[in-house]
Amino acid sequence: MLKSLSLSAAAALMVLAVPMTAAATGDPAAGEKVFKKCKACHAVGSGAKNKVGPHLNNVMGRTAGSIDGFKYSKAMVAAGGDGLVWDAASMDAFLEKPKQYIKKTRMAFNGLRKEADRANLIAYLAQHSAGGTPDLSAEQAKTQVAAATTPASPATVNAVGTHGVFGLGRLALPEEIAAWDIDIRPDGAGLPEGRGTVAKGEEVYSENCAMCHGDFGEGVDRWPVLAGGFDTLTEERPEKTIGSYWPYLSTVYDYVRRAMPFGNAQSLSDDEVYAIVAYLLYLNDIVDDEEFELSKDNFLEHRLPNEENFIPDGRAEEAHYASQAEPCMQNCTDGPVEITMRARVLDVTPEGEGEEGGGAID
Fold first, then answer.
1. CATH class of 195-309
2. Where are the alpha helices (DSSP H) in the chain?
3. Quick count: other Cβ atoms within 10 Å of Cβ 16?
4. I want to staple 201 with a disulfide (CB 3.0 to 4.6 A). Which of 39, 81, 232, 275 is the partner?
5. pLDDT digits (tens, 9 = 90+) for 276-292
6. DSSP 85
7. What local confidence, expressed as pLDDT, does residue 342 receive?
8. Which residues, at least 6 apart from 41, have a Cβ–Cβ distance to it below 8 Å?
């Protein structure tokens, strides 16, 4: 009898130990870096709220699809109703292949292939579960209080509320202007120093971009396609990609540097942006050498195929603009007005079961 009980207890301990494995072996600090891939849709930590996806505070130990007020897919709610609770084992399986683990989930993320990444992420999420987020240490609290109570410098005080009719606002500081003024022009003005290879770009792209845009720029679900689409611009449904439609390579660099990765914008170094742009050139067959390196020095040597089909805006040279006259608003033609083209109606509203909620994800 005692032997039987001991075996039962041991079995129970083994079952209890399974969910803790990934969290126990993972590195929360490394998991915080992995979480950058999730920040576009999820939040975790103090003050976290639902975004495109639900917040992940206390997710470990929570029944799937159970946050009040968040509109989950029917598949996720059904999984929770069937008893799915997020522990290390179930979370690991879901993070590896979300759409295979829960059919018809709206989760657009393709999954984390590396077991270490999943273990680290689970360990990070575990820190924000069961006990909430950790309290500030005494030193952290002291630092925050000091920062909040330190008087502003006289220059800052004098700059506030002294401008304009209503006395609102202040002059922008040079460092604020510099942080905002980062545009890159087609002639290369504004390009930072740096360089990056196709091979490095593939690595950075896989870590930061592939979950939305696909491994080869093919686009995941309704996220934009970045490669291909050649010779489709005259078709009824053209594929407007970097290779088929975009006019200038500077636009690619500027946009990636300014706005990507989605949810974690301006987190890439200048070298990493050069590398991603080099990889996008490779995906679009504009360069064919995996060892190709894009840099400030050779940037203007590479043109996008559709550049010549963009023409300058000549409205300033039109007669009523040049003479600063009022534009003609009636009786502007000798003959009857004819409709020469109609706009095409595009209905992109999702249809079918489990598609409600537009772009929401689980």
1. mainly alpha
2. 2-25, 28-34, 74-81, 88-96, 98-101, 115-127, 138-149, 154-159, 174-180, 198-208, 210-213, 249-259, 270-283, 319-322
3. 10
4. 275
5. 999 999 999 999 999 99
6. B
7. 74
8. 51, 52, 53, 108, 109, 263, 361
Length of the chain: 362
Q: Residue 211 and residue 223: Cα distance in Å, rounded?
A: 9
Compute the distance between CA of residue 208 and CA of residue 261 in angstroms, rounded to an integer.
Answer: 6
Structure tokens at 78: 């059904």
**pLDDT score recorded for residue 347:** 59
Q: Which fold has domain 18-127?
A: Cytochrome Bc1 Complex; Chain D, domain 2 (1.10.760)
Where in the chain is CATH 1.10.760.10?
Answer: 18-127, 195-309
pLDDT of res. 152 = 45
Q: Confidence class of residue 148 from pLDDT cuts 50, 70 and 90?
A: very low
Q: Which residue has the higher pLDDT, 310 or 131?
A: 310
Identify the helix (H) or strand (E) that includes residue 293: strand 293-295
In the block, which residue shows the tokens 């683990």?
A: 101
Find out whether 76 and 64 touch, Cβ atoms under 8 Å.
Answer: yes
